[in-house]
């Protein structure tokens, strides 16, 4: 019998409504992982009200104790490591190696933040008045509504949920419908770690319902922070909604991430980086490689080596350890990717596989691992000769497709890298430190890699982008604390009299006309 996943309010399951949606294994379309009961707006708002009621008591729990709850979560994830890994592979089609890396990201995040409960530092600030002390404190924002995508169904939610809970907030989490089983499993581990009922609720809903729930929750004063991971287009709407209520959302959006290959680069290393950046997770990462920008003197040789690597890569069954990437995550993403392939133009040269589009018996891929008919498997595509005015150059393409273009000067490469208007991740392969630092200084990207992939976040480094990739907010490390706390200042005057700042201060009378006598 197919498992039914429902939303929770106050930690209690909600009676399922008629709207239901299957979560399907994208590598085996006959495997229904779970059935998801989709909630309505009233359920979303009820979860926000419940979170509002529960948050104050959670904030009163000492921060070091909240840190112990985070530590408990890390140990629970470790104890359930392989089960959660297998579920990620089954529900969203990641290879086992990438799924293990994703689960490890939760452990790393918990290990980092478990100590931050003892380091939610404020400051003691000197006053300009005698017998007066000034202080600053970090205080929780209140209720955080978190909306995440399914390409990282447990790791990215941990970037929001773990620090939000550590800081004393309550969380209403809306995961992707096609990754509901992963979300349900992760939420259960969070509750088992010691998070009280109502402090974390999960609401399964579609996009329009979620947006309407956010709108109502903001209007009624139930939501104090929105965290959103998704497309730039939807992120702009979420940011606009938050702004109308004088809030700043934490937006982690898409990318058209460039990789520059200079004339002095280690070409084999650059090929390895481009292969993983462009085609790992079937290109379904916000940090996936969008466009290779290659110095014209090495373009032909680099292209030859890259084509050989892409053509020889194993694609197919994500449970096979030899596979570079498995299926696209869902029929919705497959359909969207098919539309990106319509952007191929006459001046493009396509390579990388024996075909373009969905892999099938009629459109085979040499060396495919498994049976392509069972899932949503697609050919890897290299598109040579992309131009700045091409849609393939300008827009994020969520799937296994990478553009290739040339440059002559490094200034031109920097200009091409930033031209699409995103600003998430950028990489350069070079053995010249001057080129590396010139590129870092010139690009608008929030994250820059030297001789490394555009993908590969670490739990203690700030993650986030600028431009079309985000609003400057950052996740991970100590930087995310600014998303889930507000600074509160306090002044304490124990002089026994009113002391007015800037008016009753002690004055010093210097002799600024004094000059040393000439020798």
UniProtKB/TrEMBL annotation:
<dbReference type="Pfam" id="PF00171">
    <property type="entry name" value="Aldedh"/>
</dbReference>
<dbReference type="InterPro" id="IPR016161">
    <property type="entry name" value="Ald_DH/histidinol_DH"/>
</dbReference>
<dbReference type="InterPro" id="IPR029510">
    <property type="entry name" value="Ald_DH_CS_GLU"/>
</dbReference>
<dbReference type="InterPro" id="IPR015590">
    <property type="entry name" value="Aldehyde_DH_dom"/>
</dbReference>
<dbReference type="InterPro" id="IPR016163">
    <property type="entry name" value="Ald_DH_C"/>
</dbReference>
<comment type="subunit">
    <text>Homotetramer.</text>
</comment>
<keyword id="KW-0520">NAD</keyword>
<dbReference type="InterPro" id="IPR044638">
    <property type="entry name" value="ALDH7A1-like"/>
</dbReference>
<keyword id="KW-0560">Oxidoreductase</keyword>
<feature type="active site">
    <location>
        <position position="252"/>
    </location>
</feature>
<protein>
    <recommendedName>
        <fullName>aldehyde dehydrogenase (NAD(+))</fullName>
        <ecNumber>1.2.1.3</ecNumber>
    </recommendedName>
</protein>
<dbReference type="InterPro" id="IPR016162">
    <property type="entry name" value="Ald_DH_N"/>
</dbReference>
<feature type="region of interest" description="Disordered">
    <location>
        <begin position="6"/>
        <end position="25"/>
    </location>
</feature>
<feature type="domain" description="Aldehyde dehydrogenase">
    <location>
        <begin position="16"/>
        <end position="489"/>
    </location>
</feature>
<comment type="similarity">
    <text>Belongs to the aldehyde dehydrogenase family.</text>
</comment>
């Amino acid at each position: 019998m197919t498992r039914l996943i429902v939303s929770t309010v106050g930690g209690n399951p909600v009676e399922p409504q008629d709207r239901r949606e299957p979560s399907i294994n994208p590598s085996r379309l006959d495997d229904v992982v779970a059935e998801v009961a989709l909630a309505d707006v009233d359920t979303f708002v009820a979860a926000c009200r419940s979170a509002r009621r529960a948050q104050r008591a959670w904030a009163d729990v000492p921060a070091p104790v909240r840190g112990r709850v985070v530590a408990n979560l890390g140990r629970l994830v470790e104890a359930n490591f392989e089960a959660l890994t297998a579920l990620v592979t089954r529900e969203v089609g990641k290879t086992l190696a990438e799924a293990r890396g994703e689960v490890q990201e939760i452990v790393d995040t918990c290990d980092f933040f478990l100590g931050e409960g003892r380091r939610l530092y404020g400051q003691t600030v000197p006053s300009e008045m005698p017998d007066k002390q000034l202080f600053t404190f970090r205080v929780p924002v209140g209720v955080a509504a978190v909306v995440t995508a399914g390409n990282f169904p447990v790791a990215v939610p941990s970037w929001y949920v773990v620090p939000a809970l550590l800081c004393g907030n309550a969380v209403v989490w809306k995961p992707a419908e096609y990754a509901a089983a992963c979300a349900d499993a992760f939420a259960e581990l969070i509750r088992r770690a010691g998070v009280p009922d109502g402090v974390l609720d999960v609401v399964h809903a579609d996009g329009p319902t979620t947006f309407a729930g956010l709108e109502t929750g903001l209007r009624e004063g139930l939501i104090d922070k929105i965290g959103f991971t998704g497309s730039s287009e939807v992120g702009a709407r979420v940011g606009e909604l938050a702004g109308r209520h004088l809030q700043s959302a934490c937006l982690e959006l898409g990318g058209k991430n460039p990789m520059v290959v200079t004339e002095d680069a280690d070409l084999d290393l650059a090929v390895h980086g481009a292969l993983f950046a462009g085609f790992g997770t079937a290109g379904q990462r916000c940090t996936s490689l969008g466009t290779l920008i290659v110095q014209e003197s090495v373009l032909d040789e680099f292209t030859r080596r890259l084509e050989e690597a892409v053509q020889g890569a194993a694609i197919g069954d994500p449970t096979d350890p030899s596979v570079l990437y498995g299926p696209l995550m869902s029929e919705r993403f497959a359909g969207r990717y098919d539309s990106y392939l319509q952007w191929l133009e006459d001046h493009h040269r396509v390579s990388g596989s024996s075909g373009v589009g969905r892999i099938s018996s009629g459109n085979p891929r040499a060396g495919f691992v498994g049976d392509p008919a069972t899932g949503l498997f697609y050919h890897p595509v290299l598109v040579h000769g992309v131009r700045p005015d091409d849609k393939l150059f300008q827009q994020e393409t969520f799937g296994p497709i990478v553009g290739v273009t040339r440059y002559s000067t490094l200034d031109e490469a920097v200009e091409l890298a930033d031209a699409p208007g995103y600003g998430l991740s950028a990489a350069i392969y070079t053995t010249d430190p001057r080129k590396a630092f010139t590129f870092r200084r010139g690009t608008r990207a929030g994250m820059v890699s030297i001789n490394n992939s555009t993908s590969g976040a670490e739990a203690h480094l700030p993650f986030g982008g600028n431009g079309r990739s985000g609003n400057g907010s950052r996740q991970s490390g100590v930087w995310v604390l600014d998303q889930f706390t507000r600074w509160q200042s306090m002044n304490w005057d124990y002089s026994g009299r009113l002391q007015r700042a800037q008016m009753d201060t002690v004055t010093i009378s210097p002799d600024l006309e004094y000059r040393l006598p000439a020798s």
